[in-house]
Design goal:
Number of strands: 0
Low-confidence stretches: none
Mean pLDDT: 97
Structural class: mainly alpha
Number of domains: 1
Number of helices: 5
Order of helices and strands: HHHHH
Shape: globular
Distance between the termini: 10 Å
Largest sheet: none
Length: 113
């Protein structure tokens, strides 16, 4: 297994935890959005990521990392430009920073890893 495997092995469960915490932490106290649609997005994609990492299929793992990284980068741009799904996800500045950092990392590792 390569770096992509280990990145997704850690990242997928973190997505699930982030989604669950988004429901548990009151919106006013959270650094990130906490919008229900955004939390569900994290849980669903985290579960997909766990299934993919359990498959141990290198090309699927690499593809997930690249595609999710691109989605993260899109979310940062969408937040800045008020594009879909901004009104449902209600991103905060911390979300934007995380999307740029994580998205860039996932795309880079997915392509070079």
């Amino acid at each position: 297994m390569d770096l992509n495997y280990y990145i997704l092995l850690v990242f997928a469960p973190l997505l699930i935890v982030a989604g669950i915490l988004g429901f548990a932490i009151p919106k006013g106290k959270a650094l990130t959005s906490g919008a229900p649609a955004y939390n569900l997005f994290h849980i669903v994609f985290g579960m997909i990521g766990v299934c993919i990492v359990l498959s141990r299929n290198d090309s699927l793992i690499r593809s997930f990392n690249v595609v999710f990284g691109v989605i993260d980068l899109y979310q940062a741009a969408a937040s800045y430009m008020n594009l879909f799904p901004q009104k449902y996800f209600e991103w905060k500045r911390a979300d934007d920073i995380l999307h740029v950092v994580i998205g860039t990392l996932l795309v880079f590792v997915g392509i070079t890893g």
